[in-house]
Amino acid sequence: MEVNQPKKHVEVVNNSQHKIVEDTNNVLTMKHSNRGGWTTFPFILGCMFSIAMAVGGWVGNLIVYLITKYNVKSIDATQIINVVLGCFFLFPIPGAILADSFSGPFIVIVVFSIVSLVGMTLMTLTAAFPSLRPSPCINMSLPCESPSKLQYGVLYTILGLTCIGFGGTRFTTATMGADQFKDPNSVATYFNWYYCALYVAGAISSTAIVYVQDNVSWTLGFGISAASNLIGVILFLSGMKFYQRIKPTGSPFTSIARVIVAAVRKRRVSSRNHEYNYDIDDKSNTSPSDSFRFLNRGAIKIESDGQKSKSWSLSSVQEVEDLKTLIRIMPLWSSSVLLSGLVGMFNNFMILQALAMDRHLGGSTFKIPAASFLFFNTLATAISLFIIDRLIFPIWKKLNGSPLTPLQRIGVGHVLNVLGLVLAGIIEVQRLHTARSHNLIGISTGMTSVVPFPALWLVAPLIIVGISEGFLFPGQILLYYQEFPTSLRSTSTAMVSLLVAVGFYLSTGITSLIRKSTAWLMNDLNDGRLDIVYWLLAAIGVVNFGYFLICAKMFQHKLDKYDDNMDNTSSS
After folding, report:
1. Which parts pass through the membrane (predicted)?
2. Separation of alpha carbons 144 and 564, rounded Å
3. What is the CATH code of the structural domain delimited by 329-565?
């Protein structure tokens, strides 16, 4: 008895300790279960809104800044902008990989937003100190002084910092906001409001901040953008105790590579009458789908695998299906790359057209800044997002019994984009006709002469393309978020950014090809044929829309076939 008593005591103590640990875990679970939801919405959306304001103040008028302060020729300035925007939309990919694989979205957003703050502060200094820029171009009949290598080096370094900072936060913020919700309807509503706030911020920055830059001071304009960036960082950190943080599970790209390596190693193994490897938490035990059947070999268990659950010779069924999802969606993703390039070229050419037109408002002396015309684009997008969410969605669901699908939204965006390009070409024809009637053709001094043709005509195509973006980009980000594997959630939203980045690089190549092959794009637009360029872009858009329809049909067919296969497997 005396020997057993201490054992009982130890047993009681251990049970008490287990109960304390269990109660503590329950309290922590209850504490963390209260995190997330709409409580986090003001902080995340406020951060995104402030940083989007900073982005608009930085890049919205950058093409004019390069032309007027760095003496860069107009078409060369558009090429620089294409590269800058390409980098800006490319860097969300490394940010998403870091968020998914290592640190989670919170750390990525904090670090990258601080980097962008440093970049914006330095950008303000380039406007404040004339020594960082070439001498002003006073006599337009003489060649202007080009920036020195040092000045170009400083400028490109600053542009690189801002691209990294702004790019790393843009879509990671979107993913972190979506992770706060469990209900798919709440996620869809969040994405609508996210894009609505994004475009409203762009509309404000493209008017108010651009006006300050053009009419008051470039230093003050960039300074406001830097201050807005700082406010965004403070807002985001203020809500840190309310956020629901999803821990990263390691690099999802490692599992993708493991599937390919394992399938290649077992290429001689028959895919029939074999046991498959499943994740521990996968209770369905459904067989892999029939599509891309070769990859199924990666999840086949053979004697040499032993007790391993995962290795470079053995993956799980879920990992195989995740890779198949990526393969199925990539053709559809590629159909939007060219479209994003057309949108980028359209925006740049709109600014150049505005510089060559009468920008006075009515008969007043007030002149609208050229870059501010993009305000009508962003405003149209913001309003259309609200109308789509509150009016079009409910009506469509009432008439058809089902909501408007992401694929249908993307398709509408394709069509409207082509219509906007056609209308822009028609307006350019009229502008060139006016330039010809006023003898403004053939008198080039290196810059485009202003034609007495109202620039407000540009509002119509800008509105149409803005509405197209209201259908296009939210539809894409929702599609990728729904269809991508859970482990690639941050990467899924960044896929929109990647296609825009590739689109901008592609537009740089298209612009260079047109310049080398034709005389349509001249530094003096009055001596070129920008209208033909618009016709060409519209034709490319039509062909690309046909490609999208083919990809969408193939994707839907494969998705339906996959669902049927999963249902049959589960029932058996």
Report:
1. 40-67, 79-99, 106-130, 150-171, 192-212, 218-237, 332-356, 368-388, 409-427, 455-481, 493-512, 532-552
2. 67
3. 1.20.1250.20
